[in-house]
Amino acid sequence: MSDETRGRPREGDEAFVRSSARGILLTLHSALRALKLYPVENATVQKALDELQATTTAFLGVEPEIELRLAGDFLFLSGVRLRLELDNFAAFSGVLSILRAFDIGVLRIHAGVERREWLAFLSMLLSLANQSFDDRYVALIERMAQASVPNIELEPSTATNEEIGDDREAKEVAKRTYAQGVAVTKEVVNSVRMGRASSLKKVKRAVQMIVDQVLTNETSIIGLTTLRDYDEYTFMHSVNVCIFAVALGRKIGFSKLQLYDLGMTALLHDIGKAKVPIEITTKPGSLEEEEWRMMQAHPWRGAMTLFGMRGYDEIPYRAILVAHEHHMKTDLTGYPRHVRPRQLGLFSRIVAVADGFAAATTRRSYQTVPIEPDQVLKEMWNNPRRGYDPMIVKALINLIGVYPIGTCVILDTFEVAIVASTVSDRDALNRPLVRIAIDANGGAIAAPGIAVDLQEAAPAGGFVRSIVKVTSPERYGLVPGDFFV
Ligand SMILES: [Fe+2]
Ligand SMILES: [Fe+2]
After folding, report:
1. For the whole prediction, is pTM greater than 0.70?
2. 211-228, pLDDT tens digit by residue?
3. 24 near 49, Cβ under 8 Å?
4. Which ligand is nearest to the CA of 244?
5. How much distance in Å is there from the Cα of 329 to the middle of ligand 2?
6. Are 409 and 416 in contact (CB under 8 A)?
7. Which of 93, 362, 104 is nearest to 239 (CA)?
8. What structural domains does the chain harbor?
9. Which ligand is closest to the CA of 334, given by its number?
10. CA–CA separation, 53 vs 57, rounded Å?
11. Which ligand sits nearest to residue 302's alpha carbon?
């Protein structure tokens, strides 16, 4: 077998692997835990070994081997990624950490494995885990060579996971960039709150890092905008708006220098909130009229604050404009009230869209359930009173997709499906590729479901299937991830 196909289940076997994988993971972890706590002759240990032997031999009756592979933060069992769920959390992290402790990349179990091999192997893991070695993996391999465990085989993590290293590194860099953005935002907001003078140099550097990440590592950095942390909400909001604004600017064709400028204005758009009492900006529930009036002052207060700031000795004029205009709306019905007719600047229109999307999809202290992204996009697109620039909303839809991957949808054929990929064709954004998970009669279809293209035309005109509405996958007992791996 080639390296490509080795260990990967044949089509049709995947459902079997998936359903067995859970049992193998849980019994492996129970056996390790029992052996750690009790002597071998204890009934708990014996029972746990019996169960491990039972789940593995059942699997090996169908597949020639079990391949447990560690790749980054993921575990794969015979090519199928094991999902971290609430009820397998202990097993998942326990197995993950023991593999990591020994630098094991692959644990391979061959058909014919005996119960005593499991006992020997697991006992070795536990006894060596507490000793220090130059190379614990080598120590384990040496020990295994002495014991007789012919059906248990290991591969070190470095030999098999080289390509994963880059990906992990990319994620690490994205995380550091994000954290840096939050830190400088916090610093500048706090100094404004305390009335201290602050410079924008650090902010500029942090923004440049974010722009570079959007240009080279867009998926990772956008993925971080979904992080939740109540305490850091205000600062994370600014960083998220910065990331979305820069990604939008890139879609529209901005140069790198323009993106630096745009990112700067986005990061500072709510700086005026530092001048609003903190009890109001973080108040759960709705605001009293007077409080709302103070909140609505944040755009002009932000503009005033920025007037006093310098970044590399320049007054950040663009950021002043964006702070002032970002809630005005394109029809000028927002706040602050305009005095003369005006046209919102392009930067303000981009930041307004990024701000609206980031605010609606994030969990805040008073908004416990974030609205689904598709609802937010639809509202931004369909409701002209929201006052967003339609061209920018279109760019956002292109960036995020009307129905993001993993959305659970009900079709006009009464089928339930999971969105499997977004569409780049601008006229067909509401017709993605989906995988049908539940048929018209309510019967479940095993993952990965049946792939259909919603752009498929019906012979009599129109389309074969269309999305009626978005629903929650839990309602149908579906795990979206199962349908698009
Ligand atoms: Fe704002
Ligand atoms: Fe905002």
Report:
1. no
2. 999 998 887 787 677 666
3. no
4. 2
5. 13
6. yes
7. 362
8. 14-160 (no CATH), 164-396 (1.10.3210.10), 408-483 (no CATH)
9. 1
10. 6
11. 1
Ligand whose nearest atom lies closest to the CA of 266: 2
Beta strands in 16-138 (DSSP E): 65-71, 74-77, 80-81, 104-110
Ligand nearest to the CA of 351: 2
Instruction: Round to whole Å and give the CA distance between 175 and 80.
Output: 27
The confidence score (pLDDT) of residue 309 equals: 86
Give me the residues near ligand 2 (ion), CB cutoff below 5 Å.
270, 355
Q: How far is Cα 213 from Cα 172, in angstroms, rounded to an integer?
A: 11
Ligand nearest to the CA of 238: 2
Q: What is the CA(216)–ligand 1 centre distance, in A?
A: 28
80 CB-contact burial (10 Å; exposed 0-12 / middle 13-18 / buried 19+): buried
Total Cβ atoms within 10 A of residue 417 = 28
Amino acid at residue number 73: D
Separation of 196 CA from ligand 1 center, angstroms?
A: 22
**15 vs 12, more confident:** 15
370: left (phi over 0), alpha (psi -120 to 50) or beta: beta
Look at residue 369 and tell me whether its pLDDT is greater than 60: no
Residue 298 Cα to ligand 1 middle (Å): 7
Quote the CA–CA distance of 133 and 454 in Å, as a whole number: 57
Q: If pLDDT is split at 50, 70 and 90, which confidence band does 407 have? A: confident
Ligand 1 centroid – CA 346 distance (Å): 16
The tokens 């402790």 sit on which residue? Answer: 101
Radius of gyration of the chain (CA): 27
CB 198 within 8 A of CB 234: no
Would the pLDDT of 249 be above 80? yes
Q: Read off the pLDDT band of 306 (50, 70, 90).
A: very high
Q: CA 149 to CA 57: how far, in whole Å?
A: 16
Give 415 or 141, the one with higher predicted confidence. 415
> Which are the contacts of 274, defined by CB distance < 8 A and separation ≥ 6?
189, 190, 192, 193, 305
Tokens (6 digits) for 446 = 């095993």
Task: Give the pLDDT band (50/70/90) at residue 161.
Answer: very low
Q: Taking residues 189-193, what's their average pLDDT?
A: 88
The mean pLDDT of the chain is: 84
The count of residues in the chain is: 485
Separation in Å, CA 82 to CA 222, 457, 481: 24, 37, 11
- Cis upstream peptide for 336 (omega within 30°): yes
Contacts of 216 (CB under 8 A, 6+ apart): none
